[in-house]
Model the fold of this input.
Amino acid sequence: MKAKTATHVDDGKVRCSWCTRDPLYIRYHDREWGVPLKDPRALFELLCLEGAQAGLSWWTILSKRDNYRRAFHGFEPARMAAMGGRDVNRLLGDAGIVRHRQKIEAAIGNARAYLALEAAGENFSRFLWAFAPAERVPPKTGRTTAPESEAMSRALKKAGFRFVGATTCYAFMQAAGMVDDHAEDCFRRTRRRTG
Done:
């Protein structure tokens, strides 16, 4: 998400411009977006949701997040990995999620890739956070990729993940708090330490 400017909501706090007056977006912005997330399962869920969002607005996915959790067994990788063709066909008829065959199949395949990493002794959180830049505050806001997201994308694809392009990975890094792309005057912005 781009955060070049900020906006006031009725409570007087300055927020990123993408954070409209919609209560769902405000809660997400204030409580989740950009907060460092380390739990492997929560990171897996977020990565799946970011993949589902490709080509759509984040609001579309955020408003359907509970439906996604229901449809994909709470993003429990082992249960997702066991899903097959019948499940895909059932989900294609589920109006509570985005009915896109490749994205549904990618989420299931990503669960299998997650389990394969785990079986190889890889902690998913450490795997992903290894791509976080040394400093959370990026040199500029408004970008949609970074060398780190490109490297993360390559590594995830090599591990068998899909719908994990560099732009999706950068959005994931923003949401997971690996970078802080809140607008300069947003009340949630991390301040650089001086001295």
